[in-house]
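Service request form, structural biology core

Requester: graduate student, group of Dr. S.
Request type: structure prediction, single chain
Budget code: on file
Notes: please return the result as structure tokens.

Sequence provided:
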Amino acid sequence: MEIMPVVLDAMPTNQLLIILFQNIVNKMEEKNSFSFLELEAYPWLLTEPIRSEKLRGNVIVLYAFQMLCPSCILHGSPFAQKIHQTFADKGVKVIGIHTVFEHHNVMGPDALETYLAEFRYSFPVVIDKHNSPHPIPDVMRRLELQGTPSFLLFDKAGNLRSHYFGPVDPLSFGYEIGKLIAE
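Core staff response, request fulfilled:
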């Protein structure tokens, strides 16, 4: 999505507010849609590619991680696996996004497959793309993530309801998931 440039002097205030509001709405809609996973991330590991329409009607936990991130290794990835095991039969989908923003040469798909197998993770994982010279991968940039681990919690309609960076309190997060399941 591109933000429309606006010439302030030549435009009435109410028209300016409408354009600014529409830009904000467009950005929110873009963030609340999973179609970016189909365009900006590949390959999928531990699953066939997941189409965005298959996610509707489910609570979605999007887990952004790097396999060499200490907090991901100690907290994030085991927690994502626990969510996957606990809630998979209750309409909750966990999707891991391996979003590499450092040490690119040692965190390729083969190393990631080994990492997932060694730790026996079974939630689907997709690799974030780098389609620009920018060091931050595409999905990470689109979702404005600060780093890893990050957990994003989406309701059944695909609306972003919570966003966490760093270790997450399991009890509070489980409570939030339970509320979204019940909606």
